[in-house]
Sequence to fold (459 residues):
Amino acid sequence: MPAVTVGGLLPAAVLILDALGGALGANPVQRALHQTGQLALIVLLLSLVCTPLRRLTGWTWPARVRKALGLLAFFYALLHFAIYLFDHDFAPGLVLADVLERPFITAGFTALLLLVPLALTSTPQSVRRLGFARWTRLHQLVYASACLGALHYWWGVKKDHTSPLLAALALAALLAARWLWPAGRSRAGRRATSR
Amino acid sequence: LARPARPLGPYDTSEPVTPYGQATTYNNFYELGVSKDDPARNASALQVRPWTVEIDGEVEKPVTVDIDKLQSWFPLEDRIYRMRCVEGWSMVMPWLGFPLAALLRRVQPTGEARYVKFTAINDPQHLPGQQEPILDWPYVEGLRLDEAMHPLTFMAMGLDGKVLLPQSGAPLRLAVPWKYGFKSIKSVVRITLTASQPQTTWSLAAPDEYGFYANVNPAVPHPRWSQATERRIGELRRRDTLPFNGYAEQVAGLYKGMDLRRFY
Fold:
């Protein structure tokens, strides 16, 4: 397993050890819910660093870890959702009401849904089957997912929006970087894509 | 503070009490920080002595009194109350203290008094949370006078046989068990009787989410989550939230004829 995947799974291992050791505090379900949600968003933002970093520097390694980061983000988002379902006793009525009636949950749930087709088409075979242009367009859904994820985080905080604000600013910077250094414009970018 | 050894009283719940270690490490007390474990960690920032409480406004006998003197006025009672946080979790708290009604009778509300306003400690020099504009400091809360006079409405000075720790609202805090926890203001320094409804901190901060009444009501969801169920701290499964947090028999009469969806 590549180092990124191993490193990226470490927080999950720590979370499981903490849960087994009773180290998640008085409300372990809520703690696990918050940790996995934050991890999902952080790793998703890291996956969005890869492309601008490659274009700016000409390095190719960011492109090689992008897929692992994207799948890790999806893994944490799924785990987050699974804990949310547990938190609601897997009661379909409660969950459906949440998803339909509460924008906070609608945003988070949609962010997760948008990641599903991306995870399913993360293989080289999918790129070939869809064609690079269509695959790229499909994978632009990640921007919508990240925006909804950041909004979900913002709405999920009762007061003190420092952390959600930092996430939103990071996301805005990453989106702006794509606009400032579009694909194939820079010399470094050309060098990278020609490889 | 000695906890009177006696059988359960008429206001006590027989449910298992939340372990003291959990009740004192999982707290909302933004003056000491916004994370659940911040208040316990930053507890030493709250200076609990000397402490005076000012009781003023629409009363015949306004008084400013030292906290230890105030305690000597009333025999300590214990009350095992459910506490339901607006965030969807709950605890069972064995409070020690005295009914607010006893204090109010002593200062004699005037004929003009309709509400009671509570003000918490304001000490931005020492309290880390008050160095940030998280809320409009100091924290203020309020009750209607009939709510304040209700025998369930309690001023707590101890928990589980021990003097209140800062994170629990030392040295004097309100405990109104049929309302969401944020109504039960901590570390009170001033109690003012007023003719008009006082403003309250959370309803100023987010009026569409937190109202003046804030009675526990499973039928009225918070905009971001349902209030139909709750997690009792220490339990993994959720349980149903009861109207007025299970105190409907005692307090529903206070709200006869009121639209509780409007006055949430």
Chain B has one domain: 20-255. The mean pLDDT of chain B is 95. Helices of chain B lie at 20-23, 38-41, 67-73, 100-107, 145-149, 201-205, 248-251. The longest helix of chain B spans residues 100-107.
